[in-house]
Amino acid sequence: MSVKIRLQRHGKKGKPFYWIVAADARSKRDGRLLEKLGTYNPNTNPATINLDIDGAVKWLQNGAQPTDTARAILSYKGALLKNHLAGGVRKGALTEEQADEKFNAWLDEKATIVSTKVDSLAKAKADADAKAFELEKEVNEKRKTDAEEAENEAVKAEADAKKAAAKAEEVVEEAPQTIDEAAQEAKEEIEGAKEDVATEEVEAPTEEAVTEVEASKEEE
Asked: How confident is the model at residue 57 (pLDDT cuts 50, 70, 90)?
C-alpha cells in the first residue's frame, strides 16, 4: 500500500485548519486516514505547527512520501533531519548519541531563529500600535481644537447678536424723541416764515407816497 503524508483540511470557511496525516495515497483528500501526526494552523503569524516528529520519521522510514506542503512542514520541524540522522546511524556513520546531539543542536538553533522572528513581529506590532495610537491622538486633539474653535465662534456670534439687539433697542427708544425734535424745529421754522411774510405785507409807506397824499389834500 502506497502511503502519503499530507494535509487534511478542517476549520471554517476562510479560516482553514489542517491535520497532518498519514493516509492511503488512493483515498480522497478528506477521506480515511491511517494516523494523525499533527496539526497546522496558517492563521497565526508565525504559523502554529504541532508535529509528532518520531511518528513522522517512522512513516518516512516505512516509505511514506510527503506532499510538497507536508515536506516543507516536516523540514521546518526537523523530521526530515532526524530521518536523515537515523539513516546515518543505521549505516554506522555516527552513533545514536551523536545523532541526538546534532538534532538537539539543530532544535536549539531553530528555537533561537523562531524566537527572534516572534520578537521581531511583536516589536513591529508594538510599533504599529504605537503609531496608530499617536495618529488617533492627533485626530482626537484636532477634533477637540476644532470643537473649541467652533464653540468660541458660536459664543462670539451670540455676543455680537446681543450687542446688535441692544443697539437696535437704543435706536428704537431714541426715535420718538428725535421725531419730536424734528417736528418742533419744523414748527418753529413755519412760525418764523409766517412772521416774515406779515412783516413784508405791513411795510411803512415810502416818502414819495406821503408827498402825493399831502399834495392831493392841498388841491382840495
From this structure: very high
- Please tell me the CATH superfamily of domain 3-94, with its number: Ribosomal protein S16 (3.30.1320.10)
Cell 491622538, residue located: 137
Whether 210 has a pLDDT exceeding 80, the answer reads: no
pLDDT at 216: 59
How many Å apart are CA 89 and CA 92, to the nearest integer?
Answer: 5
Give the whole-number percent of the chain exceeding pLDDT 90. 37
Q: Say what the pTM is.
A: 0.57
Rounded to whole angstroms, how far apart are CA atoms 182 and 19?
A: 105
Cα dihedral across residues 155, 156, 161, 164: positive or negative: positive
Domain residue spans of the chain: 3-94
Which among 40, 53, 50, 32 is positioned nearest to 9, based on CA atoms?
40
Q: Do the beta carbons of residue 37 and residue 56 sit within 8 Å?
A: yes
CB 60 within 8 A of CB 3: no
Q: Which residue has the cell 411774510?
A: 197
